[in-house]
Amino acid sequence: MRILFAVFLLITSFLDLSTANASPIISGISTNEINIDTNFRGADILLFGAKGYTGNIVIAVRGPKKNFMITKKERFLGIWHNGERIKVKDLYSYYSLFSTFSDNAASAEILSMLELGKSNLKFNFSGEATDSKKNDFQIQLIDKFEKSKLYPTTSKIDFLDETLFKVMLHFPKNISRGIYTVEIYLINEDNLTSFQSIPIYVNQVGLSARILDFAYQESFLYGIITVILALVVGWLANYLFIRFIGK
Amino acid sequence: MFQIYLPIAEIPVNILLILLLGLVTGFLAGMFGIGGGFLATPFLMFIGIPPAVAVSTSANQIIASSVSGLMVHLHKGTVDMKMGLFLVIGGFIGSTFGVSLFRILQKAGQIDLVIALVYVIFLGSISIMMLVDSIKTLSTKKYNIVWEKKDSDRFERFLAWIDQLPWQIHFPKSDITVSVIVPTVLSVGIGILVSLMGIGGGFMMIPAMIYILRMPSAVVVGTSLFQIIFIASNATFLQAITNNSVDIVLAFLMIISSSIGAQMGTRAGYKVDADNMRSFLALIIFLVCLKMFFSLFAAPEALYTVEVLKR
After folding, report:
1. Among A156, A186, A197, A183, residue whose Cα is nearest residue A53
2. Which structural domain range is residue B178 located in?
3. Which CATH architecture has domain A2-63+95-127+146-204?
4. Residue among B229, B237, B259 minimizing CB distance to A238
5. What is the pTM for the complete model shown?
6. Which residue among B249, B260, B299 places its CB closest to the CB of A80?
7. Contact B248/A229, CB-based, under 8 Å?
8. Measured between alpha carbons, how far is B219 from A51 in angstroms, rounded to an integer?
9. What's the number of domains chain B is made of?
């Protein structure tokens, strides 16, 4: 939806600018694949580009949407347990933003429409809770994500000269797999003048990822295999022990 | 080095630590003839395995540890199949109910707390009973103190009440006649324990078979192993399909190491003084219980937790 909206904005802004310049922004990334294996410690991807237009650059990286459960610990008779829980649906599992805006208020409307900036993200709480409670949980959620680097706090774009820029995208070790999108926006006086989207594929590789998938997707078969494995290995271990070590 | 990633628990663990853990619990199980599940599960929790995964994976391991014992008993012909059948029926009902309860608690976010509480209560009462028992035995041995056996009038009345329950059936192998309600109710309880605690419940089932069902002791162990394999299989399967909490890699490592440990424990059991070892076991269980008890009161690392939901 949001991307459609961006495209729509772009088309309308081109119509506005009858004297449109060619190639307003060009950018690329060093790789668009991240493979998570058991030794994965995070990944860095270099984004570079050039802008031909005047205006501000905003770069947003969004991870696949997930559902999250936020739980508050409470104490009863001295015992700590899980208290209030709120579920947040369809929230980006990763989100980082880079921008040349010195003052976000300048283009607040368009930034909000494009969900640019953590404060412009939509939080889909499910279940009933008061607004102030939702707000508390939202603050805690963002705080958690910032601490675990899933929502990085750096936002600086490095300029090599007037047109060339680069950004280092950091992905921590606890990222979810799925398709990430890097979106590069050029915004000039409240108008979107250029938009580019680059996907990054985050895959989980290795045996343990395959086992996890299998356990969830083919849980019936997985359940049967766990039982049979225990029967066979338990019997075999005993047999071999008696056979080779003796009673 | 030696790190292995557990796919379902989703944490890396030291493979040697898991093997050692299996070896120790298997050794104790072999030595004392009890399942070892009620030591394995807390130990797994202590090293950071999520309680839900520890419980379900232990249920998986119980299948393996019961198989080899059952083979011996089948060979000797010391299994009461007819009794076993009624125990399996009750056990299926109990474990199915237990796994559903597990699911409800997991959804409500309270499964970890309930597992810990149930363990503290169970381990606490077992270890105290065992300690008192072994103190009595040791003092009789050393100082010739004779402990008066309590008049079990009430227990006699309980047995008399059981004997007049309906649906009396004769079990030829054990040569007893008992109402089918009794084994069924007993095994419903065991089924719930398997699902919620990841234990085989032999330490409760065996005395119940001897004192309540009054089965001859020759067939008790074999029949108990027979029923527990079915109950643990049902619990493992249901945990895997409803809660996705069985870790096959962890289970495999525990099965291998605990089988070896059990063999060593059985052999060592012939050589040591059983009464001394029993008080030692009681002490271990008591310490495990204490640790679990205090961890209930420990302040959490963070007041809020965030988890990614898989579905």
Report:
1. A186
2. 3-297
3. Sandwich (2.60)
4. B259
5. 0.80
6. B299
7. yes
8. 84
9. 1
